[in-house]
Amino acid sequence: MATPKKTVAKESGQEKAGSPPEFSREQELKALRDMLLIRRFEEKAGQLYGMGAIGGFCHLYIGQEAVVVGMQMALKQGDEVITGYRDHGHMLACGMESRGVMAELTGRRGGYSRGKGGSMHMFSKEKHFYGGHGIVGAQVSLGTGLAFANRYRGNDNVSVTYFGDGAANQGQVYESFNMAELWKLPVIYVIENNRYAMGTSVSRASAQQDFSKRGVSFNIPGKQVDGMDVRAVKAAADEATAWCRGGNGPIILEMQTYRYRGHSMSDPAKYRTREEVEKVRHDQDPIEQVRNRLLADGVSEQDLKAIDAEVREIVNEAADFAQHDPEPDAAELYTDIYR
Amino acid sequence: MPIQVLMPALSPTMEKGNLAKWLKKEGETIKSGDVIAEIETDKATMEVEATDEGTLGKILIPEGTADVLVNTPIATILADGESAADLAKVPAAPAPKAAEAKGDAKAEAPQPAAKVPAAPVSEALPDPEIPAGTEMVTQTIREALRDAMAEEMRRDGDVFIMGEEVAEYQGAYKVTQGLLQEFGARRVIDTPITEHGFAGVGVGAAMAGLKPIVEFMTWNFAMQAIDQIINSAAKTLYMSGGQMGCSIVFRGPNGAARASPPSTARTTPPGTRRCRA
Question: Which helix (H) or strand (E) holds B88?
Fold first, then answer.
């Protein structure tokens, strides 16, 4: 294999200045719709949780939508996606159906895991989505394994392995980095840095707060990306997928993002101020950014409202299905333990 | 007085070995640290280094001799100032351990070994699934494990093996001996020492449809990876409602051994099956 030139590595931590490449109107509209779907879906999930229709764990993705939507826009059929427990957005971005995801949240038969997985454990082989993993950091080794399988089979698929700033401190992340670079596995490690690992801010938990540099001792290049700007995410994703498909091995993208809601439904988020959240919402909201650009480009408010209405209808239908679909039979407790 | 070189035990379990080759001739000068001979055990060919200095006086066991018991004198080394004539001074070779034990038993023949409880007698019962008259082959467990894996790898291209020292070293305990030569580095993969990581990589590959055999050098090390074994490999079939299974074998040696309590990993989490050999 040719020795790859590590040109990207030099950019580590320095990617700040300059606007990302413009989107076409079509791309802007797609990004808006996909991000809106995630936001409305998550708002509805939060509502159903409050009503007691969803039990157990539930971690909402509101605020981080640009990351998965921008990444997905750069992927091709066959590329795998895997993530941790905050996974609803990733599934919707992969094209999994709202009703199947919502019904899994409510633990119904029509859920992606037939009601047995819940919020953190959904999968779709058809959409190449490999979960949904509750163990913080476990998906990093698993995603590296997906890349291993691509390499083994000699295809040109890329594994997109998401994890957070909290998981980035787990040991197996670095075990995986080592093997991924050693074997030149096609994996994009997307570190979604939303500034808080549950209630612990990055500055209280991380000796190296520039996550794009976390691969330095393994020679894995990395890049910091404005994860609130879907165009910047897409541009970084294009570069990263090309790097991986070129046989250069893994790459790290640190997505600088923010979650508006608490870590989970039971988190009052007392570790940060209301003003901090409001400031991000006001200045950086990923959906508002696209809306404003579209309006400036001459798209009418009415057209945008129509998109919102279409998305709300999908979400309402999903919520309705998720509350009326039957629960799994008690006998399901004993199925799918052994194949 | 000339020094005797004894057949060394090159592993805790070695009882005898083959004297493959002498690297020094009689009359050659020997310095401490010189490799003087090569010895083959059932696991590997190892070098014997001299710990004394002088001249190789006499080779007592010629090269090519098989099954030389540990502690058998294999050569004598003459110290400075000694000559071949001094070889006669060497006392009769101390008998190797096995022979010693026999001699003692003979001397104390009147004392019955009644205090030692009789070893339990185990008799293999005929297996009803094996047709009568089937010709049986004798092989070690490690060979049987290797042959079973090779058979699966020939049958199915999605089967591969990964672990520490499984490939170029030919297996820490020689279970994967020869597999690299037959299947190549794509399917017989040496990993770094990183159990948690490579177990996870194996599970991920299995979720993508491959059929990995993940070897832990000892089962104790598998505890580093137990999170991936239980939370990712065993539970996902259930948690995905049957959609995302994982065909994977985790293997490794376990049980009573020196300095290794046999108490670890005797449970089988739901979603996994335990096989013992």
Answer: none
